[in-house]
Amino acid sequence: MDTPKRSFVRYGSAVALAFATGGIRAQSYPSKPLQWVVAFAPGGAGDIVARLVAQKLGEGLGQPVVVENRPAPVAAASLVKHARPDGHTLLMAGSGTALTSALFTKLPYDLMGDFTHVSTLSSFDLAFLGAAASDLRSVADVIAFAKTHPGKLNIGSARVGSTQNLAAEMFRSMAGIDALIVPYKTTSDLVSAIRSRDVHVAIDMLPVVLSQIHAGAIKPLAVTSARRFAGLSHVPTVAESGLAGFEVSSWNGIAVPAATPQAVVTRLAREIATAVGSPQVRKALLDLGAEAQASTPEQMAQRMRSDIAKWRSVIDRAAIPRQ
Fold this sequence. Notes:
By secondary structure, this protein is an alpha/beta fold. It has two domains: 33-123 and 250-318, D-Maltodextrin-Binding Protein, domain 2, CATH 3.40.190.150; 125-232, Periplasmic binding protein-like II (D-Maltodextrin-Binding Protein, domain 2), CATH 3.40.190. It is 45% helix and 20% strand. It has twelve helices and ten strands. It has helices spanning 4-18, 22-27, 45-61, 73-81, 95-103, 139-148, 163-175, 187-195, 206-214, 262-277, 279-288, 297-318; strands at 34-38, 65-69, 89-94, 115-131, 153-157, 179-183, 201-205, 218-223, 249-257, 290-292. Strands 1, 2, 3, 4, 5, 6, 7, 8, 9 and 10 form a ten-stranded mixed beta sheet that branches. Strand 5, helix 7 and strand 6 form a beta-alpha-beta unit. The longest helix is centred in the C-terminal third of the chain and has 22 residues, at 297-318. The chain is globular. The N and C termini lie far apart (64 Å). Keywords: Receptor. InterPro entries: BUG, Bug_dom1. This is Tripartite-type tricarboxylate transporter receptor subunit TctC. Belongs to the UPF0065 (bug) family. It comes from Acidovorax soli.
């Protein structure tokens, strides 16, 4: 019979053998600067989040984290898929990546099979917006107007197939209203349309319109997440405004190639949590209109799966052709 001491020795030996290769690689990780591939143009909300987190993450890892902008989501994900799986090449993934997987029938990668999801970084709301002097002061007002005047309500959004556009489709479906969704190429075009009342209301990412809200140029009727945004605590959620169950938020995180050693993934997740949880990063994100939100690898993977399923349902209900 094994004594407790012998059992402990055997257990320790097994652990040592199990980490003989992965553990050694983890101890020497990272051995060079990290490349963080971001599928957004410089200056956008996702790019700003990446640069805020990259500096702190690099401090924790002891190597620089270099942000590389590749504003083509499919190409960016493909690049990271084929990178060496050693934790030195990162992909910014999130709700937009999930939406792409829901919208496209053929992609050169499998989002859940070709990547290991490490941790979420931040989450930010979308906002229902109206002109500063509009008579529509709440989501309840918007729904009442649409039902009283079928086909007359115009809802502005970003391009067809974007998170904002599909959020508008989801709102139209759940509210049971007859409304026209009008896509715009840029946020500035959309804000101009709100201010000139070319559209009654619009939906856009909170970080890109927060300065316009603070300036009083446009007014927020509601935020689309499950709870109120701390930086606009007086603004209710869509669910609080009478459309129970409506919830859309945009989020981002970090993924790596699927064969990356577990010990490296664990180290990365730990350092991301430290970076995102630092007071400086948390405040900077809040000022931007986002909230710090680290997670475990399992939590990020589950969120990705849930988002893919949700957007597939929205796409089907809206009869949007898959590409």
